[in-house]
Structures are given as C-alpha cells and as structure tokens.
Design brief:
It contains one helix and five strands. With about 90 residues, it is mainly beta. The longest helix has 5 residues.
Length: about 90
C-alpha cells in the first residue's frame, strides 16, 4: 500500500446538522443501529460529531457527509465534504 492510499483511507460519515451556532463549525448527529450485546435487540444510537465548515455552507436540518481529518481544535476532528440534501 502506497503512502497516498494510506492517507485517503479516512472514515466518512453521513448525518444531520443539529447546530450551526459556531463560526465555521457545525455539529452533525450520526444515527446508527446496533444489536444489544446481552439482549440481542436492535437499538438505535447516535453520536455527535463536530465538523469544520469553511464556507458556513450547511444549515440546520441538512443531511451532510463529513470526513475524518487531523485535529483542528479540542473537539473538531471532522470536516464537511458535501451537503447531500438541503433542509426544507
């Protein structure tokens, strides 16, 4: 595996924007389903990712795609790749 292939092997997640109150930053909620380890029931969980939005392009309720990147601040380790669908 070459150095370029290793570098591009980054996590990509898709989620909904839940906050745009910061400058050049958004908070994205990523929902996923998992099987409970003991009870084997399907459980919905979500996690919040802080992402860098250079152009303040995303708005509340948009579905966006974010990619893992180097740490940009204490909590921001993701960056906005694209806005998949706009909120109505």
């Amino acid at each position: 595996m070459t150095e370029a292939e290793k570098r591009n092997n980054r996590k990509v997640r898709q989620g909904t924007v839940v906050s745009v109150k910061m400058d050049k930053s958004i908070v994205v909620r990523v929902d996923r389903t998992m099987r409970h380890p003991r009870y084997n029931k399907i459980v919905r969980t979500s996690s919040k990712l802080y992402a860098h939005d250079e152009k303040n392009d995303a708005n509340l309720g948009d579905v966006v795609r974010v990619m893992e990147t180097r740490p940009l601040s204490k909590t921001k380790h993701w960056r906005l790749v694209e806005v998949v669908t706009r909120a109505k």
